[in-house]
Amino acid sequence: MPLKDLPPDAQPREKLLARGPGALVDAELLALLLRTGIQGKGVLMLAQELLAPPPLGFGGIAGLLHTTADGLRRIKGLGPAKRAEIVAVLELSRRALAQQLQEREVLTAPEAVKHFLQLHLAAKAHEVFAVMFLDAQHRLLAMEEMFKGSLTQTSIYPREVVLRALHHQAAAVVLAHNHPSGSVQPSRADESLTQTLKSALGLVDVRVLDHVIVGPGVSLSMAEKGLL
Questions:
Q1: What are the MPN domain coordinates in residue numbering (predicted)?
Q2: N or C: which end of the chain has fewer CB within 10 A?
Q3: Predicted model pTM
Q4: Which of 91, 120, 150 is the last residue of a domain?
């Protein structure tokens, strides 16, 4: 049923304005963003299909927000305008979290750090090693994706990480990489790499606060697990 044919108090926009965004289910919020459906499929049905479990959909709001513009191409009815709107929401989320971490001490916002890294790394099909560079108050200065590899391994050069830390005049870092396989359990290689980087950065008085491993919809803090 088209949105205009729903009773006024059941239409997502009117419901949001009258009762607040918390009154809307995920599909209704997404329908507001999409605005229109396609021939033979209303916008609510299109939204529900996008949120459906894989392979039909992306597995809920988190899965949708962790996808890419290319990933959205496979959905019939999502033209360039709709894909751009969804990707724009994702980018706004990244920037909002980045601003929060630039204004707050990272150690006081561990969940925000995980969400920030999820939005940056979780959807990537290959392994990416990233570093969050922090100032003396442990606020975010910059985040750089420094190395890319295959699905199973990547080559990390400690010297390059040290040089970038000096470039940003960082006092501390949070290391991060993704596991496209979905498992976020650290391997022996992950633990060894962490200690190598910790030693290299320690020579220039830069602390390693954490190493976060990211998978689709999940993340693990090595600091929280006592592995630093």
A1: 106-228
A2: N
A3: 0.73
A4: 91
Q: Are 180 and 190 in contact (CB under 8 A)?
A: no
Q: Which residue has the higher pLDDT, 136 or 33?
A: 136
110-154 tens-digit pLDDT: 888 888 898 888 878 789 999 999 999 999 999 999 998 864 556
Q: Tell me, yes or no, whether 116 and 85 share the same domain.
A: no
* Residue type (1 letter), 137: Q
Q: In terms of domains, do 63 and 110 share one?
A: no
181 or 171, which is more confident?
171
> What would the pLDDT profile of 75-96 be if each residue is shown by its tens digit?
877 888 888 888 888 888 878 8
- The total of structural domains in the chain comes to 2
Residue 171 has φ and ψ, to the nearest 5°, of: -100, -20
Question: What would the DSSP string read from start to end of 34-49?
Answer: H---BTTB-HHHHHHH
* Domain of residue 152, residue span: 105-221
Residues 87 and 114 grouped into a single domain: no
DSSP string, 30-90: HHHHH---BTTB-HHHHHHHHHSSTTTS-SHHHHHHTS-HHHHTTSTT--HHHHHHHHHHH
Nearest to 72 by CA among 82, 18, 137, 62: 82
Give the dihedral of Cα atoms 32, 33, 38, 42; nearest 10 deg: -20
Q: Is the dihedral of CA 227, 223, 140, 203 positive or negative?
A: negative
